[in-house]
Specification:
Blueprint lengths: L1 H31 L4 H11 L3 H12 L3 H26 L7 H21 L3 E2 L1 H23 L17 H33 L3 H13 L1 H12 L3 H19 L1 H6 L2 E2 L3 H27 L5 H22 L1
């Protein structure tokens, strides 16, 4: 048990560090190849914070554990809203930008509803995965179309490394990719063993332990943005990550390990995700109209809802 916990901790460290090196190397390599900074920002840099969820879910699906992958995606979204955003708001109030009302929030609502419709029959298969891939393709197309029409703000170019040789960039890219793959594989194997030892489903481990560990980048990024006064990035990071978790993470079990999953992932965990999403929408729209901040009470509300969900789950499995 202790050995598995140590492996999981090392796996989290490998995933987070590997994602950082992968994004650094891929961004520098793409820049050296003449790819515009905005394109790099909308693809490689945006991919960075969701890379741990993506690779761990892919490894879960390959290991024949679709519930672990589904639990990771849903659990990460619950953690992002309940803890990452909640803690950030408690530390420092955030003013939600107007763009959220027109772009990010409607996209999050649409994607979350689509997720529920696909999960309604308690089965994730190839058709569900292809539908999610089609939606993410549409969103990427909209992003680039918005860029051409001047509707998308420019990416901060300091996020993209320069003065890095192509050989060095490629080395970091390959190192990061190797760390992501190896760390995800060991993390999933250790998680499956812990689930067996504790006598719980792999979905529970995905919802809690794996979701918490793979969401650490979002927590760090959101708190940092809030402290620096980057309000749009603080909220946008959470919304963007939740959209990616559904559209990019969930297709893996559908394509690689299609099958039925435990009903509690829908009736308890998806519902919890939607309650937190509804709270975000209910708080953001009035705040945007009145040009006021989301304060510490809002943060406490997110945290309390997360703790309530966790308490219900703990009660049910015991």
């Amino acid at each position: 048990m202790l050995v598995n916990i140590l492996i999981i901790c090392l796996g989290f460290a490998g995933l987070i560090w590997g994602a950082d090196k992968f994004v650094f190397g891929a961004s520098a390599f793409a820049r050296n190849m003449g790819i515009p900074p905005l394109v790099i920002g909308l693809t490689i840099v945006a991919f960075g914070t969701s890379a741990p969820e993506i690779f761990s879910s892919a490894a879960s699906a390959l290991a024949g554990e679709p519930e672990l992958a589904i639990g990771n995606a849903i659990g990460s979204n619950i953690f992002n809203l309940g803890i990452a955003l909640g803690v950030a708001l408690v530390i420092k109030p955030i003013t939600p930008p107007k763009s959220l009302a027109r772009k990010e929030l409607p996209a999050l609502i649409l994607v979350s509803v689509i997720c529920g419709l696909l999960m309604f029959n308690r089965y994730i298969g190839p058709i569900d995965a292809l539908l999610l891939i089609a939606v993410v393709t549409f969103f990427i197309w909209k992003l680039f179309r918005g860029h051409r029409s001047g509707e998308v703000e420019a990416i901060e170019e300091e996020e993209i490394p320069d003065n890095v040789s192509t050989g060095k960039a490629l080395g970091f890219l390959l190192l990061g990719l190797a760390l992501l793959i190896i760390s995800a594989e060991y993390l999933v194997d250790a998680s499956i063993e812990i689930a067996a030892i504790l006598g719980v489903t792999s979905g529970i481990i995905g919802l809690t332990l794996v979701a918490l560990g793979t969401s650490l980048p979002e927590l760090a990024a959101t708190v940092t943005c809030a402290l620096r006064g980057h309000h749009e990035l603080a909220v946008g990071n959470i919304i963007g990550s939740n959209i990616l978790n559904i559209l990019v993470v969930l297709p893996f079990p559908g394509l690689l390990a299609a099958g039925y999953f435990d009903s509690s992932l829908l009736t308890r965990d998806y519902v919890a995700m939607m309650v937190l999403t509804a709270l975000l929408v209910a708080l953001c729209y009035p705040a945007i109209r009145a040009r006021r901040q989301l304060g510490r009470l809002s943060g406490l509300a997110f945290i309390m809802l997360y703790l309530a969900w966790f308490g219900i789950m703990y009660y049910q499995i015991h």
